[in-house]
Amino acid sequence: MTGATQPATVVRLDRAEVRIGGRTIWSDVDLRVQAGEFVAVLGPNGAGKSTLLAAILGLRPLSAGSIQVLGAEPGRRSARIGYLPQRRAFDPATRIRGVDLVRLGWDGDRWGLPLPGWLAGERGRSAARRVAKVIELVGAGDYAERPIGQCSGGEQQRLLIAQALVRRPELLILDEPLDSLDVTNQASVSALIQQVCRDHGVAVLLVAHDVNPILRYLDKVIYLARGDALIGTPEQVITADTLSRLYNTPIDVLRDRAGRLVVVGQPDSHAGHP
Amino acid sequence: MAGAFSPNPIADVQQLLSYHFMLNALRAGTIVAVLAGVIGYFMVLRRQSFAGHSLAVVGFPGAAGATLLGVSPVLGYFGFCAAGALLIAALPGGGRAIGNRGEESAVIGTLQAFALACGFLFVSLYQGFLTSLNDLLFGTITGVSDEQVLVLLLAGLACLAVLLVIGRPLLFASVDPAVARGRGVPVRLLSAAFLLLLGLAVAGTSQITGSLLVFALLVAPAATAARLTARPGLGIVLSVVIAVAVSWLGEAIAFYSPYPIGFWVTSLAFAGYLLATGYRLARDRAGDRA
Question: What does the pLDDT look like over B214-255, one tens digit per residue?
């Protein structure tokens, strides 16, 4: 882990609360995410996992408490955050290359025109080098020149991770990046995220529906349910006792021979996902 | 239209350019084609063709109403299209009726029918020449005044100047709105600004192709360009080149033939689209998907 001598607090929530339309999504959340930490956000549908990410990104105001992201109000440090929203499958007819998509992650928020490389001068060339490098890092070199709509789900996801990484973020926020990937791709994308986290000291906050593909990489788990949040190591949080208390109903956590966890008896909250 | 076609192409072009109305038609056609080529590229990328079509239909009662009141139809086109753009921008979803889903497209569709009916009413109240209805709906090359060319030029330059500033974040917000929003790009504002630009481009294009054939310059060149390349910069350039070529050729053929300009421009644009689609199918089949 680089820069681990004095890990900085990247995200800090104090007694945070979000209410949407009179309903409390969660309250009293205290959270610290340090540089280089790999943190999973878990919980049933409608528990406010995406809302937590939105609050950290500054897209959803708190109704109480405070958030600090990279030492500032949320939304102020967006250039230092890589964000991968909940899965967007690109329309097969989308005629934009993967490399263009990654490039938009580099300077898409700057006013002006997207110039072709030969017109953009030295700044354009160094941007193109960085884009090529990050595409190589995620192993998307073979299909980055293809229209994004014609890439497979796993290929699109790698390119989107490259897009989130291109500006060397200090915080990576990923909303269900493993959903709708097949098992092989889940494993390889998880390993890629873990590699970025460890090698580059990037803090990762990842919303997951299924914790198993990332379980062995996790430093910390946030489990959201019924307006409460439990935070700790996976061993502390994903246990029958803790989850039973959180849900106020008997829950079992089973572990199979490969170490995979199965949470049984978890009531899915059917309130719409905010 | 007016000219007698000869086997000598240079003489033909000279003859064509010797008419002031043709010169104006070509000037206006060029301005409109450049604008429609650029804006159309973003419209196709954003899947807002439905919004574009609605704006074109809204322009028709504007122009007809302006004629009825004795005002320049140019004002009617720009006024109604700009107002329509702001209206669509105010709807939830901002006119991004992906796959024409839901309530929003039903509302817009209802408004479209009403707008067409109003335009038709204005034309019949005007009791002018029957051709004015045809011209408003399907375009003409005879009626472009010097003043109109100037207005189109100013509107075109203003739109391109705005695009020069918002082009890159607009591309970002068009391809990937969620990430762009997370990056602090004002996605909603850009969406409204783009609809306004689209309204202006539609209003300008309507004056050449008529309200119903706007898409010949707005969609077809952009869709053709998208078939040929997946590079955004090259795509915009190609879209403009195709729109200008279609507009020039269409106007020249209309000059030498008894058939209206709208038909020629649309047919040329359609032919280009078919060719590009064939090319894309052949390339994809060959396994090269770049």
Answer: 888 999 999 999 999 999 989 999 999 999 999 999 999 998
Q: Quick one: residue B239, left, alpha or beta (phi over 0 = left, psi -120 to 50 = alpha)?
A: alpha
Q: Would you call B183 and A88 a contact, using CB atoms and an 8 Å cutoff?
A: no
Count of the separate structural domains present in chain B: 1
In chain B, residues with a C-beta closer than 8 Å to the C-beta of A85 are 178-179, 182
Q: What is the pLDDT of residues B69-81, one digit of tens each?
A: 888 889 999 999 9
Class of domain A9-89+170-264: alpha beta
Q: Cβ–Cβ of A113/B47 closer than 8 Å?
A: no
Mention every residue, 6+ apart, whose C-beta is less than 8 A from residue A152: none
User: Does A164 sit within 8 Å of B172, measured CB to CB?
Assistant: no
> Residue B205: which CATH number?
1.10.3470.10
Q: Looking at the domain assignment, is residue B17 inside a domain? A: yes
User: How far does A139 lie from chain B, in Å, by closest CA?
Assistant: 18
Listed by start position, the domains of chain A span 9-89+170-264
Range of the domain at B13: 9-213
- Count H helices and E strands in chain B, helices first: 13, 0
Kindly state whether B161 is in contact with chain A, defined as any CB-CB distance less than 8 angstroms. Answer: no
Low-confidence ranges of chain A (pLDDT < 70): 1-7, 88, 115-118, 266-274
> For residue B231, which residues of chain A lie inside 8 Å, CB to CB?
97, 100, 116
Query: SS3 for A16?
Result: strand
| Chain A residues touching chain B at CB-CB below 8 Å | 57, 59, 75, 78-79, 81, 83-86, 88, 91, 94-97, 100-101, 104-105, 107-116, 145-147, 150, 160, 163-164, 173
Q: Within a domain: residue B119?
A: yes
Interface contact B230-A112, CB threshold 8 A: no
pTM over 0.95, yes/no: no
Of B203, B179, B258, give the one whose Cα is nearest residue B73: B203
Contact B185 A108 (CB under 8 A): yes
Q: Which two tokens stand for residue B112?
A: 């479209």
Q: pLDDT tens digits, residue range B85-103?
A: 998 888 776 555 444 445 6
Nearest to residue B107, comparing CAs of B129, B90, B82, B131? B90
ipTM above 0.95, yes or no: no
